Amino acid sequence: MYLYSTLRTYLEDASSAKPTPGGGSIAAAAGALGMSMACMAANFTVGKKKFKAVEGEVRKQLDACMKARDDLLRLMDEDTRAYAEVSAAYGMPKETPEEKTARTAAIQAALVVAMDAPLKAVRVCRDALRATAALVEIANPNLISDVGVAALLGEAALRAAKLNVEINLHGLKDKNLVEKTRAEIDEAAVEWKTHAAAVMTRVVKGVGGTV
Amino acid sequence: MYLYSTLRTYLEDASSAKPTPGGGSIAAAAGALGMSMACMAANFTVGKKKFKAVEGEVRKQLDACMKARDDLLRLMDEDTRAYAEVSAAYGMPKETPEEKTARTAAIQAALVVAMDAPLKAVRVCRDALRATAALVEIANPNLISDVGVAALLGEAALRAAKLNVEINLHGLKDKNLVEKTRAEIDEAAVEWKTHAAAVMTRVVKGVGGTV
Questions:
Q1: Of A33, A89, A143, B115, which is most buried by a Cβ count within 10 Å?
Q2: Which of A43, A153, A208 sits opposite B156 (nearest CB)?
Q3: Nearest-CA neighbor of B148 among A187, A184, A121, A162?
């Protein structure tokens, strides 16, 4: 869908008065951008004599970051496809009581599906931040600011994906699902804060800047 | 350069063991992604009877967000071109004293140029966050989570661009330029925090979530 579009086209469509691509897709794309910087930092570390002692661990984190990047790129398009269903359900006729019932059921079903892509993105970003926190300790320090960019965008992507889960929860009537999902994203948020703060403390020290 | 590449190609190149595209380019791209969501929210507001009273102001902020998005897309490529110069300077020979002097001078000149793209990105993101803070008050509230995504990515892009200014400041010997630039980015950071916090308080209230 948009994975093989130009950035220009993707952003033109996202900016327009069309429901998709929307916030969930853009959040996933931003996370993928961030992960590319963690991959670059790892790729400037592996195969270098100086970092031989941590080679195995860096390779492991590189694999995790590449997986996260590619998962997020897929979710960028998955969100766009899923959200189109929500939009279609809201567009259903609502004149007769039967139409109203059918429309409400279709919206509820579509919201559950639409919530899945940003929820998966929250999980992937949480894993990505774990990998980034491991990398900041062992990757080539010349790339420290790039690891920082990975953490900043991973954090923003997670928060943005979480917002897109929450907006769906807002409309959902299944109380159990709402509670379970809210607990999961709130837990991910706690973990993200710990990892992002740890990475940024290290990065800011490395570049001699301010947070 | 990458503006008309596919996202896949841009991210493959960014992930690889090549110096560019690096953190400054990725920061600008993430900011552009965020701004597309502010544009979408504005585009779902203008021309609607319900929001007639704020039409002029929304159009003004839409123009500001589109300008920010396009400026950031240009900076994405400008950073890549500028950073290639730094990389070339570091690769200069350093055997003789003359070579060392020439290399140091070339690095210093390239760092000043390379700092310019992320510094411009900091300024654009600051303006973008101002426009987003104005929009959150008046845009179609159905798009509130998208305005939130714009603020989250605008904030992360500003911080990531700032990090890329700081890594260049780290290597710069011109004390006056270092001081002047640091004062500017620190001031932008203070302003960003105010705007981002204001937007997110409003957004989180709107979606019934947690920050």
A1: A33
A2: A153
A3: A162
